[in-house]
Design brief:
Elements: E1 6-7, E2 15-16, H1 44-54, H2 68-81, E3 87-89, E4 96-98, E5 104-108, E6 113-114, E7 117-118, E8 129-133, H3 134-139, H4 144-155, H5 157-166, H6 175-196
Antiparallel strand pairs: 1-2, 3-4, 5-8, 6-7
Length: 205
């Protein structure tokens, strides 16, 4: 059953997200002043959607990897598995890399594009993602057999089997989908950084 959305109590319209694997909902958006009153009740999402619908569509090919949703997601995943200095180990080769290194990728077990098929229903699922080197992700096609073994160790066989079933769901990466995941992973990263007391490696470059 899908949970109802929760919004910041200060009235700003920001949607709230729980920390990964947590059951507790926060009352306010991270960093917001609980005493601040915002008279405008229209949600930020509604404003963005309204603005976007007024723009003329561009005849450009959709690039999933340039979206804010993917950038925020990949930063969260790499930071989650990295040590406090930003060093992370490739899930399939064991190579150590810094998360900001151009050869450090956030790889998919179930690929976003598989021949003519797309798997957007699991493209931003945490359990489908792992740190990988450029060599493993690009030249070895993600080394899926080894990545699956690694993901099973992290999350369990049942979780990965559920992921493999979910990939067959039809999903269109529209504006709402991308905005939801962009905001979700942005806040998850902020929560993670605060919890571990570390810096945002990409902002401190």
């Amino acid at each position: 059953m899908t949970e109802q959305p929760h919004f910041c109590k200060c009235g700003c319209g920001k949607r709230l997200f729980k920390a990964y694997n947590s059951t507790i909902w926060p009352e306010y958006y991270l960093g917001h002043n609980p005493n601040k009153k915002v008279p405008e009740k229209r949600s930020v999402v509604a404003k963005k959607v309204a603005k976007a619908t007024k723009q003329k569509p561009k005849n450009t090919k959709f690039d999933f990897y340039s979206t804010r949703a993917w950038i925020n997601c990949s930063h969260f995943v790499l930071t989650y598995y990295a040590n406090d200095e930003g060093m992370v180990q490739c899930s399939t080769s064991g190579k150590w890399m810094h998360v900001t290194d151009k050869n450090c990728h956030c790889g998919h077990y179930i690929k976003v594009r598989d021949m003519s098929k797309t798997n957007y229903s699991v493209a931003l699922e945490f359990t489908n993602l792992a740190p990988q080197s450029y060599q493993e992700n690009i030249h070895r096609g993600g080394n899926q057999i080894e990545m699956r073994k690694w993901l099973v160790k992290q999350h369990g066989e049942k979780v990965i089997e559920d992921l493999e079933l979910k990939q067959h769901n039809i999903c269109k990466p529209d504006l709402i989908y991308l905005m939801y995941w962009a905001d979700f992973y942005e806040q998850q990263l902020e929560i993670l950084l605060k919890k571990r007391g570390i810096k945002d490696f990409w902002k401190s470059k």
